[in-house]
Records
---
Amino acid sequence: MMVAEDLTAAEPATVPPIAVAVIGTGAIGQDLVSKIHRSAVLECALVAGRNPHSGGLEHAARLGYPTSTDGIAAVLAAPRPFDVVFDATNAQSHAEHWRLLRPLDTLLIDLTPSKAGQMVVPTLTGTHAPTERNVSLISCGGQASTPIAHALAAAFDVEYIEVVSTVASSIAGRATRLNLDEYVATTGHALTAFSGVPDTKAILNISPALPPATFRTAVHAVVPGATEEAVRAVVAEAAERVRAFAPGYEVTACSVTGDRVTVSVEVIADSDVLPRYAGNLDIINAAAILVAEQHAARLAPAARTGAAR
C-alpha cells in the first residue's frame, strides 16, 4: 500500500462549492454539519433524519440548513442528485442507502462500519479521485490505528497486530452499540489490508468512567528485532501526517519490550459541538470532510467546462 503524498491537493479558495446532504442526526451527524458549516467548498443542502425531536435536526435548523424527517426518501426526492451524501446512520441502513443512491451521480461517504465501499484512510490512500462512489471510512478506531499499523509494517517485519480502542459511554450512541460486531470485523479487515499482516485483532471498549475517558487507541504489535528509537521515529512521522487534518491526534506512549511494541494514541476533538473527549467522532468526521473537499476539487474542472462528471 502506497502512502498518499498530498493531503492538501484541493485549494478551497479556488473550488466552487458542491451540494452535500447528511443522513443521520446523532452526535456524529451533528458534528458533520458543524464541520460542513466551517468548509469553504461544501454547501449543506439537506440534513435528513427520522426523529423530529433529535438535537441534530434542531442544530442544523439553527444554522439555517434545510431539514427533513423523511430520511433517505428526502435525499432521493431532491430536484437533482447531491454531489456528496454522508451516511451517519448504521451498517444495516447503509446497505439500503447504497442500493438506492447507486444509480445516481453521487459520492456516498460511509461513516458506518458496513465494509461496503472502498476503504479510505487519508494518510495512506489519499482522498481525491476515489475510484468508487461508495467510500468507507472504516471506523474511528480504524482511522486512529491503521496509520500506525501501516508505518510499523512498512519499516519492520511485523508478526501480529492487536488494536484496543476505548470510547466514552456517553458518546457511544445507539448505532455504535448496534454495530459492535461490524465495528470489530471492519476494523480488523482494515488492519490487515493496510499493514499486510494477516494476523490482526480489533477490540472496542465502551467506558462508563466518570469523568468520561478521552478517546484512545493502543496498538500492540509483535515485532522481532525492533528498537525503541526506530519505532518512535516511524510512529512520529505517521502521527504528524494524521495531524494535518485531525489536529487533536497525539501519540501518548511508545515503548518496546523484547519483541512487544506498544503505541498509545489519544484524540482530542476539534469540534464546535462535541466534548473534547469525543475524539473518536472527530477523527472519522475530519477524514470524511477531507474526502468531500477533495471530491469538490475533482469536480471543479468539469464544472468550469460543462463536461459530464
---
Amino acid sequence: MSTSTAQTVFWRLPMVVNIGAMLILLVLIAVSISVGVANFSWARLLDDADGSLQLLLTSRLPRTLALMLTGASMAIAGMMMQVVLKNRFVEPSMVGATQSAVLGILLTSLYLPTLPLLGKMGVATVMAFLGMAVFMQLIKRLPATDFLIIPLVGIVFGGIIDSATLFIAYQTEMVQMLSVWRFGDFSSVLAGRYETLWLVGGLSALAYIMADRLTIIGLGDGIAKNLGVNKEAVMWLAIGMVAMISSVVVVTVGAISFVGLVVPNIVSRLVGDRLRVSLPAVAILGSSCVLFCDIIGRVIRYPFEIPVYVVFGVLGSALFLWLLSRAK
C-alpha cells in the first residue's frame, strides 16, 4: 500500500465510522423520544393539541439528552483510563472511582445533609479521586505484562469499597437511598433534574482538547519525555476528570457499568488508538449504546421499565467476556 493510499484510508475510515454512528444515533434519538407510556405524536407536535410538545420538553427530550450525555462521558472516561493505565480492560468502575463516589455521596447525606447539590458532587469527586489514587498505588508493583491482573485487582478493590458502603448504609437504614446511586435509572429524569450532566459534556470536550497529549503518554514514558510532555501532570489531570465525570453521573442518574469498557474497545478495533480521531466515535457510540439499552428496557416489559443498568449489565458482561476470549 502506497503512502498516499494509506493516508487516505487513515482519514476515510474514521469518517465513515463517525458518519455511520451519527446516523444510528439520530434514529435512536427519534425512537427514544417516541417510546413511552404517555401518548406522543410527532404530527401533533406543532399545535400541541394533545400535549405532545409539553411532553417533549418536560420529559422525553431531557431523558434523551441525559442518556446521551451519560453514555458519551462514561465512554470517554473509560478511554482515558485505558490510555493512562495502558490497559484495555479497565474503566471507572474497575478502578474504584464509581464505588468511591457512591461512598462519598452516602457520607455526605449522613453527615452533611444540608449541603447543596454541587457541594455533594464536590465531596463525591474528592472521594473518587482518593479511591483512584489508592488504586494507582496498589498496581504500582504489579507486573505490567499481565494485562488481566490490573482489572482483577480493580474489581476486588471496588468490591471492598462497595461492601463497606453497603454496611454503612445498612447500619444507618440508607439501603434504599443507596440503590438510587448504585444503579443507573433514567425513569425519573425530567426538565430541571438532569442539567448538571452538561458539566460532564464540558469535561468530554476538554478531553478532546487533551487528545494528543493523552495519545503521547499512552505510547510510553520514553516517548512522552522525548516529546516534552509532562506525563505525571497529564495523567493526574485525566484521573481528576474521570473522578468528576463518575461523581456527576452517580449523583444525577446512578452508576452504569461497562460503558467505559465496551465502547472504547469497539472503537479502537475500528479506527485505532489515536484519540484525536477516535474520541468523537467513542462519544457517539457511547451515547448510542446507552440509548439503545434504555429503549430495550422501556419496551421489553411495556408499560413497565427495566433500569438501563440491568440491560447494559447483561449486554456489557457478554461483550466483556467476548473481549477477554479474544485478548492476546
---
Amino acid sequence: MKEIIVLSGKGGTGKTTVTASLAALAKDAVLTDCDVDAADLYLLLNPKIKDTFKFWGSQKARISEHKCIRCGKCETVCRFDAIKDFKVNPTFCEGCGVCYNICPEKAIDMVDTLSGHWYISDTRYGPMVHARLGIAEENSGKLVSLVKKTARDIAEREGYKYIITDGPPGIGCPVISTLSGADVALIVTEPTAAGLHDLERVLKLAENFKVTVKVVINKFDLAQEKSKEIEQYCIYKGIEVIGKIPFDEDVVKAISKGVPPVEYSFGPAAEVLKNVAVLSFGDSGCRQE
C-alpha cells in the first residue's frame, strides 16, 4: 500500500483539482480529504455517505452556578476573555483549563465538546474517508490522524494499493499530521514569487518526514520565466517535476459542474493530469479510458 499526499503552500493553487483527477484515474485507491478545516474534495467526487461519526476533539470550561462564589478569579486569569459575569463563552474558550485549576471552590468543569464529524462514504472511484471540523473548533491534527487511520484500516482490510489524500494547505499542525507515515508528497505550486516561497516552506517540512517529494506546477504558462525558476530550484534540490499544467478554461468549467477535469475534457490540462497519474501509479494502476 502506498500513500500519496497532495499538498500546497496555500489554498487556491489547484491542489484539490489534482487530487480529484488522480482519484478519478486511480484503479485501486482509498480516497481521503484531510483538509478538515475547509474540506472541498467532496464537491468533485460527490460521495454518498454510509456512516457518520461524531468527533469530540476538545474541552470547554463550564461554571457550576450553585458552587460558584463569584470571586472573579477565573475571569481574571482567562487570557482569552472567555468568562464574563461568571459565564463561559464557548466560542472564545480555548479549553486551556487555567480557570479549572485556579477555582478555589472547584466550581468549574472541563466538558468534552463536539468539534465536528467524520464520514465513511462511497464514490464512483472508491471508498472515501473525510471530515468536517466545526466553526472555530480546534484539534484538526487529531481529526486528520483519525481520518488517516480509518483510511489505512480500509485499505489494509480490503486490499487497496493506494491511499490518495487531499492534504491541508500550509505547514501547520494538520499538514504535519497528514505527512506522518506517507510515502509520496506531491506538492502543487504556481509560477509566482509567493508560489516558490511556499514551495520552499513545504519542502523543508516534508524533508523531516523522509517522504519522496514530487512537484506539479499549475498554470505554468501564465508566467513561464517563474516556472523555469521553480524547475531550476527543483533540479537543484533533486526533486522531480512530474507535471506542468497549462491554463485551460475546461478546468474551470469542470469544477463548476462538480466533476474532475479528466472526466470533463480531453484538453491540454486533462492530458497533463493523466500523465501525472501514470507517473504516480504506472500504466497498470490507472483506469482504462
---
Amino acid sequence: MIPLPGKTIAEKIFSAHSGTDAHAGDIVIADVDFVMGQDGTSPLAIRALERMGVTEVFDPKKVAVVMDHSSPSPIEGVSALHTMMREFGKQTGATVYDVGEGVCHQLIPEKGHVVAGDLMVGCDSHTCTYGAINVFSTGVGSTDGAAAMASGKLWFKVPDTLRVDYNGELKPGVFSKDLILYLAGQIGADGATYEAIEFHGPVIDALSVEARMTISNMAIEVGAKAGLMDADDKTLAWFEGRGEKTPTAQNADADAVYARTLEFDTSAIGPQIAKPHAVDNVSPIEELEGTPIAEGVLGTCTNGRLEDFAIAASILKGRRVHPDVRFIVAPASRQILLDAIEAGYIQTLVEAGAALVTPGCGPCVGTHNGVPSDGENVISTANRNFKGRMGNSNSFIYLGSPATVAASVIEGKITDPRKYFAG
C-alpha cells in the first residue's frame, strides 16, 4: 500500500472541524469555534440576522462584538451603531467589548476565546492574525459572519498552502514587521490569493508570540486566507492563564504537501518600508531615508503590543519627538496599556512627546484619532497604506516597524533604526 502524504496545518484543522479527511481543494462544512465582528461590520451582521429572522446565536460564549474601529464614537451615527451592538449583546448573551477594551485581533486571543487547533471567523480581514497561535482564522463578510453566528457552521474551500521558511538570523534593528513587508515585496499583493501560508524556520522559532502575530496579521496583504504557524512550547505557554479551553495543536506533518515553498535568508534582510499607496510597494529603507514625515503612528492590530512599545521606548528614552512631527500611540488593548504603564513604556513615550489615544484601532482606519492633512507623509506600524486609508486621500502613508517609526519621529524623516542598535 502506498502511504498517504502528510497534511498541512489547514488540512488538519479542517479535517478535525468537518469530520472528513479534508485535503486542499475540498469543499467542507465545518464547525467554527468562535465568531467575531467589529463596529464597522457587526451592525451589518446584526441586520443580516434580523433579515433571517434569527434572534439567538448558536452559542453566546462563542460570539463577540468589539467596538474598536471608531471608539469612542466620533459621530452620532457611530454612536447609534454602538448602541445596536450593546443591545445585541443583551438580547443574545454574546460578549460585547465596549470602548476602551482594544482591538478585536488582540482581545479575542488575549481573553482566551480561541486556542491552538481552533477554527474561527471574524468580520474583519485581519482576522488571520490568530494563525500565529495555530488557529485557522480568516476574515469573512458580514452576511457569512451572521450565518456562522446563527448556526456555528460555515462552508470553506480547503486552501492550498504556501510554505515560507525564514532561515538565518535577524540582525539588530530588524523585526518581524520587516520580514512580512519583505515577503509582500517579493510575491506581491496577490501572491498567495486564497492560499494558506505556513511560516516556518529558525527565525520564526526564535520570535516571540507577539512578533509572530505581526507576521500572521499581514498574511491577507498578500491575498492569503490564513497565516499559520505550528504551536510550539512557546505558543502553548502563551495560552496559560487565558481561559479554560485546552489547546489541541495541529502542527504540519513533515511530509505535508505544499503548493510551493519559498526560502529567505533573513541575515541579508534589513528594515523594509512599504511606500504609498500599496503594501507590496516595498523598498529597503536605504532608498527612503530622509523622506520628511509629519506624523508617526505606533499601534494598531499589527504592532500595538507590549513588545512593540518596549522597542519604541528603548529608542525614545531620553529623546524628544521632532517638533514638526505628531506621534500618535494606540495600545492594542486595555491590558497592554496597563502592562505598558507598569513597565514604564508609556511614561517614556509621553515624555518624549507622544499623544496617547484610546486602546483600539487608532488612526489606522481613518475615522478619527489622527487624520493627516493634505500632502503630509505618515510613517506607521499599521498594516495598510492604501490611498485614503487614514482618512485623507491626499496624504501619503509609509509602513515600517516600531523601531523605524520611533527613529523616524525623533529625526522628522524616515530613518534607519539600526543606528540606534549599534554598539
